[in-house]
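Wed. Picked up where I left off yesterday with Nitrogen fixation NifU-like protein. The coffee machine is broken again, so keeping this brief.
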Amino acid sequence: MLDNLYRQVIIDHYKSKRNFEELQGEDVVKVHYKNPTCGDIMNLYLKFDNGSIKKAAFLGEGCSISMASASMMTELLKNKTLTEAASYRKAMENLIRRGHIPESIDIGDSMALQGVHALRARHNCALMTWQALDRVLKDNQEYTNFL
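Structure written out below (tokens, as returned):
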């Protein structure tokens, strides 16, 4: 029953993508990312305000897991500090790669992706948008020090 609910959440995010748009402006950073294992592509947009992520959005094409994960991530990152973003990133890495369910942080709808842990070939699908985030913030110590 829980697997079915999680599947429904993934399908909902895939069919009705949240924040599926291009952001523009001087305070917006864009990164293009291609999944090296399957060819899914996306552009991640982050709008910053006083060192925090004011809004996150994306455009792209890919499988249901990568697009749903991107939709979920953009919802999680709204109005978050870079330290908070890094804690979400770490929680997602542990959930997908190790199967560890986060106890101290609420990752919202992203919990629906926990079954991806058993599908090793799909790990990069679920983490694609998070890897794009790493690219944007790779030189930011507030983010990288927490990882």
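Quick read: Residues 2-144 form a domain with the Sufe protein. Chain: A fold (CATH 3.90.1010.10).
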